[in-house]
Write a structure and sequence with these properties.
EC number: 3.2.1.55
CATH class of the largest domain: Alpha Beta
Keywords: Carbohydrate metabolism, Glycosidase, Hydrolase, Plasmid
Family: Belongs to the glycosyl hydrolase 51 family.
CATH superfamily of the largest domain: Glycosidases
GO molecular function: alpha-L-arabinofuranosidase activity
Subunit structure: Homohexamer; trimer of dimers.
Number of strands: 26
Number of helices: 12
Helix content: 25-40%
Bound molecules: alpha-L-arabinofuranose
Structural class: alpha/beta
Low-confidence stretches: 513-522
Oligomer: single chain
Radius of gyration: 24 Å
Number of domains: 2
Distance between the termini: 48 Å
């Protein structure tokens, strides 16, 4: 099977906002407790944070982490997480039917972000609470001092404001499961007024309004139109969420779901344009895809955990999906979709980061380890920074009922002009055939392959575990080269690949140079 791609440095989609590779930590399951925070762990730092986890997060170069939820935020009192730990209240978390000790709050999370070399993306509670709590939280987090809430922060040990710029106005407010669920009009009005108040404090904030929880919600995409009609001039992003599953065990269909994601992004981009035109506005609103991942492996187990829970457990194992090799391919296709839509998707958050539907897992008192999906996320986050290239792609296709023709080749490319690199992220969706790929790069000048990595396995269902964390890892490929401006690569069936090229100076008359060096008279 053959496929051809043409890349040109002037044919671009957009500069990539590094926050496209963000992630998410919610007070849910073991994300916080025994995930990032475990004071008795042998690697715990002075704040009780696991240093082994911090090192893995740093390896991923995560630019932002959304916090504290998720569904959790919609009944969260942020004030419960400040002040001396021993006097913080234990609350019932209605979203996940668990107990919240509040031993970790905004101070602890902010310190963790500093240690993990990442930034905070904070969410305010617009479910059980509203504008007043949001503006107080903002004052606590961002005001220098001399007011009630900023002085409390200082008294609690943090003199400097954190100056968090990126704020979510609630979470999934279209979902009937959400505490304080609202209609689009109710939410749109509240989000608008909350945004206005927050901007009155700091007009340079970046605000994210809730879009649909998924593209199958009965209110989608009317929800986006109504909410943006209320909020367009006060917000910068509309949030979308999507989770992927393969319960039917149909790999070809599963791997085609990123086309559905692409359609979802395209529809919401259209709604944004519609409201922009309706408002006669020159301002742009972009998409913050702040929850995405594969999520289905743990669902049955979780039903049993919650049904069998005696009361309200603290930090039970919930949403602990064991990712398999097939999910590497899915996550690779999702990330390619975001890169190829980098003109409208500026922020995206892999949900979530530790233990809860996560690339990083921990054993309480034991090791932290990488799930299979760690690898495509790692490659995109570390090497996918720069400008997304608009590729011309010619690939054989297969038919999927609700999506039409789906290309076997899924690909994106990122040009980093400063580092002189072009990086390709590739998935071969074919179950049996190798893809002979030709990429024409003539206009880039002389390029050489500096890194070629593959993630592949003969067993789609293989997982990494605490005892066998290296069942699925990335492996270096040798022998791929660029000849006369053409990269030729053989992409194995059902494999993920990252190929990095670097520009170099190629002498025009190499024979003459050699003769001069050899001091030979011609
Ligand atoms: O990420 C898990 C949950 O999925 C989040 O709490 C919620 O926002 C979404 O439904």
């Amino acid at each position: 099977m053959k496929a051809a791609v043409t890349a040109h440095s002037k044919y671009t989609i957009s500069d990539i906002d590094p926050r496209l590779y963000g992630s998410f930590i919610e007070h849910l399951g073991r994300a916080v407790y025994t995930g990032i925070y475990e004071p008795d762990h042998p690697t715990a730092d002075e704040n009780g944070m696991r240093k082994d986890v911090i090192e893995l997060v740093k390896e991923l170069n995560v630019p932002i982490v959304r916090y504290p939820g998720g569904n959790f935020v919609s009944a969260y009192n942020w004030e419960d997480g400040i002040g001396p730990k021993e006097s913080r209240p234990t609350r019932l978390d209605l979203a996940w039917h668990t107990c919240e000790s509040n031993k970790v709050g905004i101070h602890e999370f902010a310190d963790w972000c500093t240690a993990a070399n990442t930034e905070m993306m904070l969410a305010v509670n617009l479910g059980s609470r509203g504008l007043d709590e949001a503006r107080n939280f903002l004052e606590y987090v961002n005001h220098s001092g001399g007011s009630e809430w900023s002085d409390k922060r200082i008294a609690n040990g943090r003199a400097e404001p954190w100056d968090v710029k990126l704020w979510c106005l609630g979470n999934e407010m279209d979902g009937p499961w959400q505490i304080g669920h609202k209609t689009a009009d109710e939410y749109g009005r509240l989000a608008h007024e909350t945004a206005k108040a927050m901007r009155a404090f700091d007009s340079s904030l970046e605000l994210v309004v809730c879009g649909s929880s998924n593209a199958h919600m009965p209110t989608y995409p009317e929800w986006e139109a109504t909410v943006l009609d209320h909020t367009y001039n006060e917000v910068d992003y509309i949030s979308l969420h999507m989770y992927f599953e393969n319960r039917a065990k149909n790999t070809a269909n599963y791997l085609a779901r990123s086309i559905e994601l692409d359609n979802y992004i395209g529809t919401v981009a259209g709604v944004i344009d519609y409201i922009k035109a309706k408002k006669r506005s020159s301002k742009n609103v972009y998409i913050s895809f702040d929850e995405w991942n594969v999520w289905y492996h743990s669902k049955e187990r979780d039903k049993a955990t919650l049904a069998g829970a005696n009361g309200w457990p603290h930090a039970p194992a919930l949403l602990e999906d064991d990712y398999n090799f097939e999910d590497v391919l899915q996550v690779g296709c999702i990330l390619n979709t975001f890169i190829n839509r980098a003109d409208v998707v500026k922020i995206a958050c892999l949900a979530q980061l530790i233990n809860v539907i996560a690339p990083i897992m921990t054993v309480p008192g034991g090791p932290a380890w990488r799930q299979t999906i760690f690898y495509p996320y790692y490659f995109a986050s570390v090497y996918g920074r720069g400008t997304a290239l608009k590729l011309m792609v010619d690939s054989p296709t297969y038919r999927v009922d609700d999506l039409g023709d789906v290309p076997y080749l899924d690909v994106s490319a990122v040009h980093d002009a400063d580092k002189k690199t072009v990086t390709f992220f590739i998935v071969n969706r074919h179950g049996a055939e190798t893809l002979d790929l030709d990429v024409s790069l003539l206009e880039f000048g002389a390029l050489r392959v500096i890194d070629d990595q593959v993630v592949s396995h003969s067993d789609l269902n293989i997982t990494n575990t605490a005892d066998a964390p290296d069942n699925v890892v990335a492996k270096a490929v040798t022998g791929t080269s660029v000849v006369d401006g053409k990269l030729s690569a053989r992409i194995a069936p059902l494999s993920y690949r990252m190929i990095r090229l670097h520009a170099y100076f190629k002498p025009v008359f190499p024979i003459h140079i050699k003769r001069y060096v050899d001091n030979t008279i011609v």
